[in-house]
């Protein structure tokens, strides 16, 4: 078998394991060797778990030999964002308070991926509590973008995106609270999917009823994302907002068509300032859907500013609830920009928060009305390409995220797919959004676009030619 096993997609790896042409142990060892060689350059992983990965791979190989594979991901390694609790494995949350925390339980997401037979390579880098669109914290060096290590891979699932982009495993789990899967997917040149709220249940959680976040895949291909969604989706009574029905098979959705669909294209959601190169690349990508048989219409959007007015104070309230006491106890353990959100949250009262929730309902209704007319909405994923990994830019966080957070507020499914490189050779992403609970349509559209405009899912690293 080739030494370039890291180039295989999850779908390709699974098929080779099924046919007996690839050993899960061989694949896992190849990826662990690549992690050992490259992680010091990109800081994609906070914790690598070679013993667990090898144990999982040996068990997967034994099942394969007996013809008893658990499914298409059995023996195909994955990584978890270091916000997901993992039994017996350090889970830092990107925070000094929990830098040595070892949970006694798996989260629902960790448990469902473990049940597939997929070996766990490790826990990927995240900012403190996943609070921003870069991946640095006070535990160690920042995650770096494999396309240009002086740049950020994005955040907060930046370690996951960097891992996939550098060929450190084809499957990575991320979490998306204001774009934290789609942001690094766009900046790092990989596929990222934020599913509808409730498709992937959350446990444990203390914010079901005010949630912005959901788990989602970061992968080399849309088919790989579909395989991961199949593993993670489905109801669970521990999450009261879990969608209480059997989800579709997303690998079947990969075969769907966009022919005849009505597609809305918005270059700015009515208010965003977009880099001219990004604007040109994404506009051309949106027009690709006409070649696929859809009708594409540029539409005026009047609710983008409403989303911005909701998200910023909501973010402060969210983080003051989590960090107020900690910030008083050890302010030096709270990043300066996170401390600003905590201070902002202190200025918000209960009445203001209640009004924000009402405005969030208004935003959902206005987005719903768009999908009364159109089947899909296309936008740039990000208004710019990757910026320096350090220090933080001067522009406010939500100025950089105008296209992502609206759909955390409304719960609509969205994906980012690579659609080109700018003049500096940095990836650009196209965002695909569909109506509530039409995750299958997002996957179908992403798959058709990927087929029409193929992409090399790994950064061109020295020595990989």
Notes on the structure:
The chain has 465 residues and is α/β, with parallel strands linked by helices. The chain has helices at 10-19, 24-42, 50-66, 108-115, 158-165, 182-188, 222-232, 250-253, 276-291, 304-329, 336-346, 350-373, 406-410, 439-452, and strands at 45-48, 78-81, 120-124, 171-176, 191-194, 214-219, 262-265, 295-298, 376-380, 414-421, 427-434. The protein has a single domain (5-296, 376-452), classed as Amidase signature (AS) enzymes (Alpha-Beta Complex). The strands form 2 sheets. An 8-stranded mixed beta sheet has the order 4-6-5-10-11-9-7-8, sandwiched between helices. A 3-stranded mixed beta sheet has the order 1-3-2.
How do the helices and strands line up, and which of them pair or pack?
Blueprint lengths: L9 H10 L4 H19 L2 E4 L1 H17 L11 E4 L26 H8 L4 E5 L33 H8 L5 E6 L5 H7 L2 E4 L19 E6 L2 H11 L17 H4 L8 E4 L10 H16 L3 E4 L5 H26 L6 H11 L3 H24 L2 E5 L25 H5 L3 E8 L5 E8 L4 H14 L13
Parallel strand pairs: 2-3, 7-8, 7-9
Antiparallel strand pairs: 1-3, 4-6, 5-6, 5-10, 9-11, 10-11
Helix pairs in contact: 2-3, 5-6, 7-14, 10-11, 10-12
In short:
By secondary structure, the chain is an alpha/beta fold. The chain has one domain: Amidase signature (AS) enzymes.
Q: How many individual domains?
A: 1
Structural class: alpha/beta
User: Over all CA atoms, what is the radius of gyration?
Assistant: 21 Å
Strand content: 5-15%
The SSE order reads HHEHEHEHEHEEHHEHEHHHEHEEH
DSSP strand count = 11
CATH architecture field: Alpha-Beta Complex
CATH superfamily: Amidase signature (AS) domain
Shape: globular
CATH class (first level) name? Alpha Beta
Binned, the helix content reads 25-40%
**What is the assembly state of the chains in this entry?**
single chain
Number of helices: 14
Strand arrangement in the largest pleated sheet: 4-6-5-10-11-9-7-8
Q: What's the story with the biggest beta sheet?
A: 8 strands, mixed
The overall pLDDT average reads 97
Runs in which pLDDT lies below 50 for 5 or more consecutive residues are none
Classify the fold: give the CATH topology: Amidase signature (AS) enzymes
* N-to-C span: 18 Å
InterPro entries: Amidase, Amidase_CS, Amidase_dom, AS_sf
Pfam families: Amidase
Family: Belongs to the amidase family.
Protein name: Amidase
